[in-house]
Amino acid sequence: MVLPVHRVRPDATEKYIAAAEEYYTGLREDTDLHVKLTGNWQVTVGEQDTFYHILEYENYTGYDRTSAMLQGSKVRD
Length: 77
Description:
single chain; alpha+beta; elongated; Dimeric_a/b-barrel; ABM domain-containing protein; NipSnap_domain
């Protein structure tokens, strides 16, 4: 399991939410990526403007394969 944490400037929250929704929806829907999006959360009490995303991979092979595919993706260019 991987737990990405992003701290976002208050003035960029809406833009971040739109970008994160597109990115994580793409991860979830791509059957070549062996990853399951378990959940997304925005902190509203305490350390605000912080976002958590829980990703589950099909064992280490799924993690390695997904990481390699994302690193070689043209979308990152």
